[in-house]
Write a structure and sequence with these properties.
222 residues, alpha/beta, six-stranded parallel sheet
Length: 222
């Protein structure tokens, strides 16, 4: 709006300048050119002074140009900018026996796509193990348990799942080694995990499962 007003002002000044020129024209047309003779030769007359209207117009145009530039720069700085899309934080929960190898492959596949993955053997260097695990779960965007038939027999895995449920994390179970949810056989404290949409991961369709995990569930690259 302010930029439009500035353009209108410049236009009005331009019109004023155009009407002012004819008024100046007769003075230029009737000006008598006089040459002064001196011992050294003929000296031409001194140059005519610039019209005050011309100076006013040039000053106004320059001022409006500066104001317009400042308005444009301010509009660029004030315009909302989309935040940089950050890579999701993923927590991989698994039982080392029998799923360490599968958890490692899944972790590597996600990291190849630029996803930040927490895997205990890679990310825990010092501090209390349980506290580090809980903090990582609380800070993750996606909690991904790798579930084989005996995975939930592990007290550690059950505690991780329970902590994710209590903090209302987005849980994406990956079912391996033919495991399927059986609500009746699930430990009571983690039965809610069966209500989450799961992805079955097989050796034959491993790439398809990872692609579904990243594009449909995590919406990486969307």
């Amino acid at each position: 709006m302010i930029g439009l007003l500035a353009l209108v002002i410049v236009g009005l000044l331009a019109v004023l300048f155009m009407f002012a020129l004819p008024a100046q024209a007769p003075a230029f047309a009737t000006t008598e050119v006089r040459l002064t003779a001196t011992p050294g030769g003929i000296v031409p007359p001194a140059g005519e002074a610039t019209s005050p209207v011309t100076l006013l117009f040039l000053l106004a145009v320059g001022a409006m140009a500066i104001i317009g530039l400042l308005i444009w720069l301010r509009s660029r700085s004030d315009s909302p900018r989309l935040p940089l899309k950050q890579s999701p934080q993923v927590f991989i929960s698994y039982r080392r026996d029998p799923s360490w190898g599968q958890a490692r492959c899944i972790t590597n596949s996600l990291r190849e796509q630029g996803i930040n993955v927490f895997m205990d053997v890679d990310n825990i260097n010092e501090g209390k193990f349980a506290a580090v695990i809980q903090q990582a779960i609380e800070g993750c965007d996606y909690f991904v348990p790798v579930l084989a038939p005996s995975t939930l027999d592990s007290e550690w895995v059950r505690q991780e799942v329970l902590h994710a449920l209590r903090h209302h994390k987005t849980i994406i179970p990956l079912l391996v080694d033919g495991y399927k949810f059986d609500p009746e056989s699930l430990p009571s404290e983690v039965q809610d995990i069966a209500s989450h949409n799961a992805i079955t991961v097989t050796h034959e369709f491993y790439d398809a499962a990872i692609n579904r995990l990243t594009t449909r569930f995590m919406r990486v690259g969307a």
